[in-house]
């Protein structure tokens, strides 16, 4: 039984964000529905990551805008919790989750109301227009012990909802250059008229 | 891509002049609208070939890059600039050793060749050797200390290594040379905020305020001012007086009102031009942020922290267009 189920919208937004800014690192947070207070034995069911919020494509290691973004996300998505973090590294060959991303993820994991949290690292080398595989690598912090190092999860621990359809949708989005209309929090701060929730893009992806 | 030739050239010129990095668009415009009609271009042709060459390298369209390089090499044989472009072509193929050789030879021949030295730093960065890149860039800046682009790059390299003090030093150099540039003040403030000590938070507050004074529409500076002033107002450090905390609270409330005002303006502008569904969501979003900003600023009241009898009734004044004097 997988620990997480990632919906196509979340996968698409992560890959589109990485494709919009191929020359810099990008990051964002993962959202899942908050559990209802009366739900029992929730730790055995997979956590459904239904959406993401693309955050920044420059200066990922500066705190103030990250704090402002997280507060806005919590205020806007009242029925959702931040359950993880994603990052695409700047260099093509850099597949390390360590660094600033790991610190941000640890903070998110400490405050996560759900039993588990997830760190998704984009596999830069695996992104291609044909979309033959999901270009994501999964990490989680080890719960046991003080080390709090990140541990790589096997692909079986994270399922993609309707994977074939998701890959086909992704391929279509890349061909249409849909990433040009993706808005991350940096874009929003440059022009606050831009919608960082990407509701229009979400409609397009769902259809 | 259905733009006519004239419009495509105008768009390419705008991208060139603004220095925007939109490489895919440049190459698409070139391939779809312009490349077949280069005989219609005057001397602008060469600037265009250069622009398309660099953009094509940036998005891996090497055939387009080669076509441009051939034209440029024919027109400008024995040119150092073209030689540097040949080295960049090698970089794009990941042949970093050969590219480094060319840059080193060019630098040995001409010690004033700043662009080749900077490409050496770029190659080190591409190899992931940040510490060496920092060393090389620092030595470059000893010779070319007014190169603002290089100071900014060095600041980013230090930030990647989490060396906030040195990153801040680079921004200080930039602020000294360009004291009216709001972005440098804002970036310096962000670095100071991230350092997290009481003194650095006070500095962050001051520099965010200065950035807002230089550009009242800088949203990052407004948010930063709200957060930094809020942190200063609720500081339990012995060095902060109740007067300074009250001042910080006032500043935070002013910043919150400014943020709320801008979101309301953006929400109503969006409502005029969009369908009713999205205007509801943007109105809701903008009122969410407005509420959040005001709630944050009210939490910064120093009375709770200091047990002070005087209430912050000054905070109820109408917000002025400039931040209160610090």
In brief:
Chain B: Component of the ER membrane protein complex (EMC). The complex is a heterodimer of chains A (207) and B (326). Chain A is of the alpha/beta class.
Which term fits the overall shape of chain A?
globular
State the shape of chain B: globular
Q: Major sheet of chain A: order of its strands?
A: 7-6-5-4-2-3-1-8
Q: Tell me the series of helices and strands of chain A, N- to C-terminal.
A: EHEEHEHEEEEHHH
Largest sheet of chain A: 8 strands, mixed
Under CATH at level 1, the class of the largest domain in chain B stands as Mainly Alpha
Number of helices of chain B: 16
Number of domains of chain A: 1
Radius of gyration of chain A: 16 Å
Order of helices and strands of chain B: HHHHHHHHHHHHHHHH
Q: What is the second-level CATH architecture of the largest domain in chain B?
A: Alpha Horseshoe
Number of contiguous helices of chain A: 6
Indicate the CATH class of chain A. Alpha Beta
Oligomer: heterodimer
**Which stretches of chain B are low in confidence, meaning pLDDT under 50 for 5 or more residues running?**
273-283, 300-321
Please name the fourth-level CATH homologous superfamily of the largest domain in chain B. Answer: Tetratricopeptide repeat domain
Mean pLDDT of chain A: 91
Largest interface: A-B, 28 and 39 residues
Q: CATH-wise, what's the superfamily of chain A?
A: Cytidine Deaminase, domain 2
| SS strand fraction of chain B | under 5%
């Amino acid at each position: 039984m997988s620990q997480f189920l990632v919906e196509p919208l979340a996968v698409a937004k992560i890959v589109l964000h990485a494709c919009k800014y191929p020359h810099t690192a990008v990051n964002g947070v993962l959202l899942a529905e908050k559990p209802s207070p009366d739900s029992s034995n929730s730790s055995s069911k997979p956590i459904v990551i239904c959406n993401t919020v693309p955050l920044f494509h420059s200066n990922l290691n500066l705190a103030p805008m990250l704090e402002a973004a997280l507060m806005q996300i919590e205020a806007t998505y009242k029925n959702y919790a931040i359950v993880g973090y994603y990052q695409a590294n700047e260099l093509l060959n850099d597949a390390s989750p360590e660094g600033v991303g790991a610190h941000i993820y640890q903070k998110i994991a400490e405050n996560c109301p759900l039993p588990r949290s997830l760190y998704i690292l984009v596999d830069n080398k695996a992104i291609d227009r044909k979309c033959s595989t999901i270009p994501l690598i999964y990490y989680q912090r080890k719960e046991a012990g003080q080390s709090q190092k990140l541990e790589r999860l096997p692909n079986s621990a994270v399922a993609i909802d309707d994977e074939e359809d998701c890959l086909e949708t992704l391929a279509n989005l890349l061909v249409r250059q849909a990433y040009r209309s993706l808005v991350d929090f940096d874009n929003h701060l440059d022009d606050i008229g831009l919608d960082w929730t990407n509701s229009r893009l979400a409609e397009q992806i769902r259809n | 891509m259905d733009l006519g030739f004239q419009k495509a050239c105008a768009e390419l010129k705008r991208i060139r002049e603004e220095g925007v990095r939109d490489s895919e668009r440049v190459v698409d415009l070139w391939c779809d609208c312009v490349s077949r009609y280069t005989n219609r271009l005057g001397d602008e042709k060469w600037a265009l070939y250069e622009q398309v060459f660099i953009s094509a390298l940036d998005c891996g369209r090497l055939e387009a890059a080669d076509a441009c390089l051939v034209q440029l090499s024919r027109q400008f044989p024995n040119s150092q600039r073209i030689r540097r472009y040949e080295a960049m072509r090698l970089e794009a193929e990941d042949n970093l050793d050969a590219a480094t050789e060319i840059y080193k030879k060019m630098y040995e021949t001409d010690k004033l060749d700043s662009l080749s030295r900077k490409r050496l730093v770029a190659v080190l960065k591409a190899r992931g050797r940040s510490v060496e890149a920092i060393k090389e860039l620092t030595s470059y800046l000893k010779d070319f200390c007014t190169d603002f682009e290089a100071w900014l790059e060095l600041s980013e390299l230090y930030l990647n290594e989490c060396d906030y003090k040195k990153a801040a030093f680079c921004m200080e150099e930039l602020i000294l040379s360009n004291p009216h540039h709001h972005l440098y003040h804002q970036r310096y403030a962000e670095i100071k905020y991230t350092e997290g000590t009481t003194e650095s938070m006070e500095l962050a507050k001051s520099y965010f305020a200065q950035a807002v004074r230089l550009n009242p529409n800088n949203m990052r500076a407004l948010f930063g001012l709200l957060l930094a002033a809020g942190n200063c107002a609720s500081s339990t450090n012995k060095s902060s007086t109740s007067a300074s905390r009250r001042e910080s609270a006032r500043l935070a409330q002013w910043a919150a009102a400014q943020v709320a005002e801008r979101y309301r303006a953006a929400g109503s502008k969006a409502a005029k031009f969009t369908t009713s569904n999205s205007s509801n969501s943007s109105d809701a979003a903008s009122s969410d942020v407005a509420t959040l900003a005001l709630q944050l600023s009210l939490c910064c009241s120093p009375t709770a922290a200091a047990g002070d009898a005087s209430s912050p009734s000054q905070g109820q004044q109408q917000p002025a267009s400039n931040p209160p004097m610090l």
